[in-house]
Amino acid sequence: MTCCFTRTLLVACLGVGLMLSSTPPAFAGAVQAARAKVKQSPRSPNAQYDLGLALMQSVKHQLRGGRMGTRDKSVAKEAEQAFKTALRLNKRHGRAHVMLGMLYKFTKRYGEATVHLKAGMRLPPKSQDWWIAATTLVNVYFKQNKPKPAIPVLRALIKQRPGDVDAHYKLGLSYAFTKKKPAAIIEFKKTLKLKAGHHRAATWLKKLQK
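Below the sequence we write its predicted structure tokens.
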């Protein structure tokens, strides 16, 4: 289902391309408007999603920094419930899965994050939302030192975006950590072909070719 909420706010939650005010009241209007929509249409999955997204946006810096006060935790909990309600109303709401997965990643609930991010990857592979789900899932696996399950996700990412330097580098790392030396060398070489100054890839390549 396509959500009516603007992509700008979705991207802002990821910290992509926007500088956000660190003052929570700056988002009070968006949260208030989203709550009004939920009150008007409580069974609308999009309204519930919009509320969750606005709430998550309002504590974005605290989530990313891992510095959650009592108020912040309360806001994050309300966002979680809004996303869950959206999914109860429409279990195929891909963006709700993605944002709930991100929320769980930020709060280190990696098992739950994995479930929802995998669900988010059922979105169209060429969409930005699919890319967000996939890259976040890779990061969740890396946070848990689990390179093996990251490999098929990274391959899928590269299939969609062959020029993605970070995906090639992380695939190289995943191969290196799972003792697939020849495959790792190939990916680090591809990384350097795409970005000649990638020092970490160069370091790994030198190490593996000794």
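The two ends are 51 Å apart (CA to CA).
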